[in-house]
Amino acid sequence: MESSTSRPATSIPIPSRVVLRGIIQFLFAQDFKSVDIHKQLVSVYGESVMSESMVRRWVREFKAGRHSLEDESGRGRPSLITDELTTKIENAIRNDRRLTLDELHNLFPEISRSLIHEIVSEKLEFRKVCAPGMF
């Protein structure tokens, strides 16, 4: 027999976060306490389902009147990459395609080297190209 902290014998895949929040909301509506809701989740899905502190957080949200199970938009850290920065860097590269990241950083000292790299490689999708014999 497995311990109570391991995954149950009848393995049910852990559902999405939204489904878990729905379960929490349902049990909260039936006056279950946070700790009991967490125990219910663990008994069905195993220890890795969701932390007790996260269950408490969602119970607080529902107590405060929240009805939505979806993540709120705009949560998380805002991006430092703006269209203006991207345009500045793109124009500099188009004017001199041999610019290196260090040279771009010298042109735009207010922008970190890692942010310049992210703009060039991920936003603009530019790649380093080396012609044959140019080592």
From TrEMBL:
Residue ranges constituting the Mos1 transposase HTH domain according to the UniProt record: 18-65
InterPro entries: Homeodomain-like_sf (IPR009057), Mos1_HTH (IPR041426), Transposase-MT_Hybrid (IPR052709)
Superkingdom of origin: Eukaryota
Any one cellular-component term (Gene Ontology): nucleus
Organism: Acromyrmex echinatior (Panamanian leafcutter ant)
Protein name: FLJ37770-like protein
Pfam families hit by this protein: HTH_48 (PF17906)
Cell compartments where the protein resides: Nucleus
Alphabetical list of Gene3D superfamilies matching this protein: 1.10.10.1450
